[in-house]
From TrEMBL, chain A:
The gene is GHR. This is Growth hormone receptor. PROSITE patterns: FN3, HEMATOPO_REC_L_F1. Gene3D superfamilies: Immunoglobulins. GO terms for biological process: endocytosis.
TrEMBL record, chain B:
This is Prolactin. Its main location: secreted. It comes from the Eukaryota. GO terms for molecular function: hormone activity. Residues 1-32 are annotated as: Disordered. It holds the Pfam family Hormone_1. The gene is LOC102070454. One of its GO terms (cellular component) is extracellular space. GO terms for biological process: positive regulation of receptor signaling pathway via JAK-STAT; response to nutrient levels. It is found in: Secreted. Keywords: Hormone, Secreted. Belongs to the somatotropin/prolactin family.
Length: 635, 251
């Protein structure tokens, strides 16, 4: 055994890298140890190693007496034979006493009878010769109880099955005679084990207190073996097994040797064939040309699809193209508009008084018919910067190149669409409440109407003050019109439930005008308590004689639809660039929400640049201000 | 009465069934009886015990016999012994003995000084009153140290909650067992089985208090080892006492 282990170690060492370096030295060591062991083996004829005498176990069968057993060891042969003694000591004693009885329990044992036994007293025993102590053990008697095996095992037949193939028996036995279970001094548990005669593994029953156990459903054609062992109730170790009891049904005449065994259900075959059949069916369905059947069994999994958008574009990440498609795709946009009930439009006033008759942007948006009919959307001023509404995310450079959108679709259609959308989205402020077309959503219409009216109210006071800067505004506006009316700033107008940010681009030229207009318009009612600060700020900016900033319009909606964060990043970059390129005459607008930090890809931190407004209480971001706040701001 | 017995037996079966569910392979763990089942059974049994011990004059109330009462307290003490064995095993696992267990000198328990019969013969020889007195003395001696131990063991972070709950259970059950044995004693005295000479109980109260100081010196696992031994003593004495008083009932 040791040879083998050493060889194993040796082999292992051969394989380790480090050992290879000192291989030669270790080899020598190993060889030396091997030699030693071989020598030792030859010396001790057959025994492995030197063994000292040791106490093997101490046992009490009934908690009234106990015995200790030891092994003598193997150095008797080598040295002068010594007599081994077992000394014991109770816990409250000082002297070691010798074993009272070396005989009763057999050789190399010591028997303590009842007079020497104190049950709950700690004992210590030690195996010693004259001078040497070889082994020592301490215990108390109640801990070393290992009962004797039960006796008088026998069995009786309870009944047999109808076919006579199975039978029930009852096994009973007596507790070990030494254990005084009658007086209750010791309580025993019994564990029964049984097996067929030619089996190898014993079946166990749960330990139980009773001395009678039924065994059910034994095969009458077979013979069984039964054995029982016992233990003290609160301990874990079992005693020895009893003698084996043989159960043979043929002895009592009911053995059914010629009975055929019940055919067990061929579970294995059933499972195998079932699986094969199922596989064949599935394969045949998959391969079949019948689309209906295929659809029935394997319904197609719906993949995310955007109408009109080739999913390949999305996959390839060509967002520009996708956005352009989205921007200029008529049907898509209208669909989106209608779905979004959060849309709040605040219309900006436009110079042209004719436009007052137009339907509000909201109305236009909400009514699909209206969207399609260009007539209602009236052509605004040419310098409205409509084109800017189409593709806010397209880089400014591209945009500036042409006055129209770089749409991939038909240019005419696009122009129309652009006009439409920009009018819708760029939210020309029209304070006409009368000529509203029939709308799908009357609530929204009302709301927006009220929004308009209150805005007009809001800006009523400024009507006079704004008069004078008007001409300059106009000129500026006209100058601006020639600029590529890119939207340099995007305002977060809405956050969709899906977690996307809806940006609405602003229109500088339009805003300037619109702001001007808006502030002079007195037709607002204060029904709606909330309106965007931007509106308020517009007026304030005007009063404080700032230059025309590009205004953010309350564009709740962007014709480009929902931006993904990727598009936003590109947008931001573009906007950032465009901001730098913005003419110095324009001040940074407070109500544009500039994208401050991009925590891509999860989100953006939007930060509105602070507008130098007289009232510092104003929130920098373009949030909603309540009426009270507004009243505070407005003088 | 039958219901009470059934409850008691159910509790016992639950305890013993679990205790014996392990194959006989040398394992460091001692089979743990289902503590929940034990305590539930114990609580139910003892609750019913005191409910149904009614005055002789009550109609519709079946007073328990001494045999039933004895059965209950014996079962209760058996559960205590099982719990303490399990707790000892857990403590040994968490605080392994520093030196070789076999060579360890005998633990000094605070009840070592008590004079208790240490064999079956002695237990059978001494008078019943004295045996009863010894049982009560033992239970009294452990009442306070166990509560101290409970408070002390709660501060042990590394012990599992299972051990802490066992310790608490043991403490409660010992108290219940003492109450139970007192009731049995009263019943026996009322029936004239034993004489009313248990006047030494007062002195045992005092000894219990003085002994508890020694108990605090021991380590946790030694403490539980001592208790385990004493719970075995109590159980054995109760069994012997029962068979002495009623030799015909399965004795």
């Amino acid at each position: 055994m040791h040879l083998g282990s050493l060889l194993g170690i040796f082999a292992y060492m051969n394989f380790t890298k480090e050992m290879r370096r000192v291989r030669s030295m270790d080899l020598r060591h190993l060889l030396f140890t091997l030699a030693l062991i071989c020598a030792n083996d030859s010396l001790s004829a057959g025994d492995d190693l030197l063994q000292w005498p040791q106490i093997s176990k101490c046992r009490s069968p009934e908690m009234e007496t106990f015995s200790c057993f030891w092994t003598a060891g193997n150095f008797y042969n080598l040295t002068v034979p010594r007599t081994l003694q077992l000394l014991y000591k109770k816990s409250n004693e000082e002297d070691w006493k010798e074993c009272p009885d070396y005989m009763t329990s057999g050789q190399n044992s010591c028997y303590f009878n009842a007079s020497y036994t104190s049950v709950w007293t700690p004992y210590c025993v030690q195996l010693a010769s004259k001078n040497e102590v070889y082994d020592k053990k301490c215990f108390s008697v109640d801990e070393i109880v290992l009962p004797d095996p039960p006796v008088n095992l026998n069995w009786t037949l309870l009944n047999t099955s109808q076919t006579g193939i199975h039978g029930d028996i009852q096994v009973r036995w007596d507790p070990p005679p030494t254990a005084d279970v009658r007086k209750g001094w010791i309580t025993l548990e019994y564990e029964l084990q049984y097996k067929e005669v030619n089996e190898t593994k014993w079946k166990e029953l749960k330990p139980r207190l009773s001395t009678v156990v039924p065994l059910y459903s034994l095969k009458t054609a077979r013979d069984y073996e039964i054995r029982i062992r016992s233990r003290q109730r609160t301990s874990e170790k079992f005693g020895e097994f009893s003698e084996i009891l043989y159960v043979s049904f043929s002895q009592i005449g009911i053995g059914c040797d010629h009975c055929t065994e019940e055919v067990e259900f061929p579970w294995f075959l059933v499972v195998v064939f079932g699986v094969c059949g199922l596989a064949v069916t599935v394969i045949s369905i998959m391969l079949s040309k019948q689309p209906r059947l295929k659809m029935l069994i394997f319904p197609p999994v719906p993949v995310p699809k955007i109408k009109g958008i080739d999913p390949d574009l999305l996959k390839k990440g060509k967002l520009d193209e996708v956005n352009s498609i989205l921007a200029c795709h008529d049907n898509y946009k209208t669909q989106l508009y209608i779905d979004d009930l959060w849309v709040e439009f605040i219309e900006l006033d436009i110079e042209d008084p004719d436009e007052k008759n137009r339907a509000s942007d909201t109305d236009r948006l909400l009514s699909e018919d209206h969207l399609k009919s260009h007539s209602s959307l009236g052509v605004k001023d040419d310098d409205s910067g409509r084109a800017s509404c189409c593709e806010p995310d397209i880089p400014e450079t591209d945009f500036s190149a042409s006055d129209t959108c770089d749409a991939t679709s038909d240019s005419d259609q696009f122009k129309k669409a652009a006009e439409k959308e920009e009018d819708l989205l760029c939210l020309d402020r029209q304070d006409n409440d009368e000529s509203l077309p029939s709308l799908a959503n009357t609530d929204l219409q009302r709301q927006h109407r009220s929004t308009q009216s209150e805005n007009s109210h809001l800006w009523a006071p400024f009507g006079d003050s704004v008069e004078s800067p008007r001409p300059s505004v106009h000129t500026q506006i006209s100058s601006q019109n020639s600029l590529a009316s890119t939207d340099f700033y995007a305002q977060v107008s809405d956050i969709t439930p899906a977690g996307r940010v809806v940006l609405s681009p602003g229109q500088k030229s339009k805003l300037g005008r619109a702001q001007h207009e808006g502030c002079t318009e007195p037709n607002f009612t204060m029904d709606n308590t909330y309106f965007c600060e931007a509106d308020v700020k517009k007026c304030i900016a005007v009063t404080s004689h700032e230059e025309n900033e590009p205004r953010v319009q309350e564009q709740v909606y962007n014709e480009d639809g929902y931006f993904t964060t990727e598009s936003l990043t590109t947008t931001v970059a573009n906007f950032g660039a465009s901001t730098a390129a913005a003419p110095s005459s324009e001040m940074p607008v407070a109500d544009y929400t500039s994208i401050h930090i991009i925590q891509s890809p999860q989100g953006l931190v939007l930060n509105a640049t602070a507008l130098p407004v007289p009232d510092k209480e104003f929130n920098a971001s373009c949030g909603y201000v309540s009426t009270d706040q507004l009243n505070k701001i407005m003088p | 009465m039958a219901l009470a017995r059934a409850v008691g037996r159910a509790g016992e079966r639950a305890g013993s069934g679990r205790a014996g569910a392990h194959p006989d392979i040398p394992r460091p763990d001692i089979p743990r009886p289902d503590a929940a089942a034990l305590s539930a059974g114990a609580a139910a049994a003892l609750a019913l015990l005191w409910l149904l011990v009614c005055a002789p004059g009550d109609a519709g109330c079946h007073p328990l016999t001494v045999a039933d009462l004895f059965d209950r307290v014996i079962r209760h003490s058996g559960r205590i012994h099982s719990l303490s064995t399990a707790l000892y095993a857990e403590l040994e696992k968490h605080f392994p003995p520093r030196d070789n267990e076999l060579g360890r000198p005998a633990r000094k328990c605070h009840t070592s000084g008590m004079l208790t019969p240490n064999g079956k013969e002695y237990a059978q020889k001494i008078p019943r009153e004295e045996l009863t007195h010894v049982i009560l003395k033992l239970l009294q001696a452990w009442k306070e140290p166990l509560s101290h131990f409970n408070q002390h063991i709660e501060h042990h972070q590394e012990l599992p909650d299972d051990s802490l709950s066992k310790a608490k259970q043991i403490s409660n059950m010992v108290h219940e067992l003492k109450t139970g044995v007192e009731k049995v004693t009263e019943k026996m005295q009322s029936m004239g089985i034993i004489s009313n000479s248990l006047n030494g109980m007062a002195s045992s109260e005092d000894t219990g208090l003085s002994i508890s100081n020694e108990a605090n010196m021991m380590s946790d696992s030694d403490f539980i080892h001592c208790f385990r031994r004493d719970s075995n003593k109590v159980q054995s004495y109760l069994k012997i006492l029962k068979c002495r008083i009623m030799p015909e009932n399965s004795c």
